[in-house]
Amino acid sequence: MALTRRAALGALLAAPALSRAQAQARLLVIGGGFGGATAARFARTHYPDLEVTLVEPQARFVTCPYGNLLLAGTRQIGDITFTYDGLRAAGVRMVQDWAEGIDAAAKRVRLRGGATLGYDKLILSPGIALRYGALPGYDEAAAQVFPHAWVPEDGSQILLLRRQLEAMEDGGVVGLSIPDNPFRCPPGPYERISMIAAYLKRHKPRSKVLALDAKDAFSKQGLFQDGWKQLYGAMVEWVPASRDGKVARVDPGAKVFETEFGERHRVDVGNVIPPQSAARIVIEAGLAPAGWAEVDPRSFASKLAPDIHIIGDANSGAPMPKSGFVANNTAKQAVASAAAALRGEPPPEGVYFNTCYSHVGEGYGISIVGIYRPGPDGFVEVPGSGGVSPRGDLPEQRRLEALYADAWYASITRDMFG
């Protein structure tokens, strides 16, 4: 697998420079997260003839990965916050503003501040939108009572959830409402359950976690449940959809989660992860009529606008998960494909990877791996390529995977931000 990764990356890096006639072609990137920051830095590093502009409203980026560790108290907000100084140093032009609209025909993007930016190729990586109202009772005001902590922005939501945990009396109930697929970071809610339980075990041991789920199965399920049983005993209760786990309505005032069949669960702290879609700008540009953008699996060019490459969580991408690792490595394929198109050439052959680590407890990590290729009708998983951590009483395996997770996080954020 390592040789395959190196060969695939080598194909990207070996792409020839743009011709003199195409020098200073304009690559515009919207969104400075795992996809967008990677795309901008990769473009400047490997295609120096491109003029690269990144539009991102936040001055700093707070990562979703490792955000759950703030809830356990093993990380602080500064540990998961990054500036764009490294991208500026690489020659990326940074524009701190919101992208408000796209005119695909004219190849222009309108900014909230009133300016417009032209492009020859657009890399669109704006992430997700939370579908406020899709879950009755849950709107932006409700998020101040039941934080989602799922769109990082300035980190205020994850910090709000942490403060609520700290203020809760011992013996309280922490409720989670988990949506049906698809959503950002499939293992994320279950790592969150683990990290909340880790905090409660140390500081509020009479408390419990009640996780109400709109699904009957989830990523790394056996591994998570083994860890919960071993580390937290009866502190964690996970309720699947088949046992009336799907939350149908929330009442922030009464602090109640109401399930499909009318059971009302009162919680002391509530974390609602609502249904999601591609970010608003993708929807309003007409690039995601079904909620997620459909793209060419070889180049990530929109099927509706070929000069717009849509990467990260905003595209459909299945069976690839919506993960930071996928956003990072597919961003490079999108940039290489955009550069190839500017030369009048086909995109390079694509191989896409996902590795997702999750923390279950202190010194206790698990992982899942997948390898994907373009197929005739979309993305396909390479048969026999993936896998998960082995189950069983394997303390050294769990310890090492927690260390590998830390190394992965350090490596990917360095790749993004320099």
Automatic annotation (TrEMBL):
<dbReference type="InterPro" id="IPR036188">
    <property type="entry name" value="FAD/NAD-bd_sf"/>
</dbReference>
<dbReference type="InterPro" id="IPR023753">
    <property type="entry name" value="FAD/NAD-binding_dom"/>
</dbReference>
<dbReference type="InterPro" id="IPR015323">
    <property type="entry name" value="FlavoCytC_S_DH_flav-bd"/>
</dbReference>
<keyword id="KW-0732">Signal</keyword>
<feature type="domain" description="FAD/NAD(P)-binding">
    <location>
        <begin position="26"/>
        <end position="141"/>
    </location>
</feature>
<dbReference type="Pfam" id="PF07992">
    <property type="entry name" value="Pyr_redox_2"/>
</dbReference>
<feature type="signal peptide">
    <location>
        <begin position="1"/>
        <end position="25"/>
    </location>
</feature>
<dbReference type="InterPro" id="IPR049386">
    <property type="entry name" value="FCSD_central"/>
</dbReference>
<dbReference type="InterPro" id="IPR016156">
    <property type="entry name" value="FAD/NAD-linked_Rdtase_dimer_sf"/>
</dbReference>
<dbReference type="Pfam" id="PF09242">
    <property type="entry name" value="FCSD-flav_bind"/>
</dbReference>
<feature type="domain" description="Flavocytochrome c sulphide dehydrogenase flavin-binding">
    <location>
        <begin position="349"/>
        <end position="417"/>
    </location>
</feature>
<keyword id="KW-0285">Flavoprotein</keyword>
<dbReference type="InterPro" id="IPR037092">
    <property type="entry name" value="FlavoCytC_S_DH_flav-bd_sf"/>
</dbReference>
<dbReference type="Pfam" id="PF21706">
    <property type="entry name" value="FCSD_central"/>
</dbReference>
<feature type="domain" description="Sulfide dehydrogenase [flavocytochrome c] flavoprotein chain central">
    <location>
        <begin position="160"/>
        <end position="274"/>
    </location>
</feature>
<keyword id="KW-0274">FAD</keyword>
<dbReference type="InterPro" id="IPR052541">
    <property type="entry name" value="SQRD"/>
</dbReference>
<protein>
    <submittedName>
        <fullName>FCSD flavin-binding domain-containing protein</fullName>
    </submittedName>
</protein>
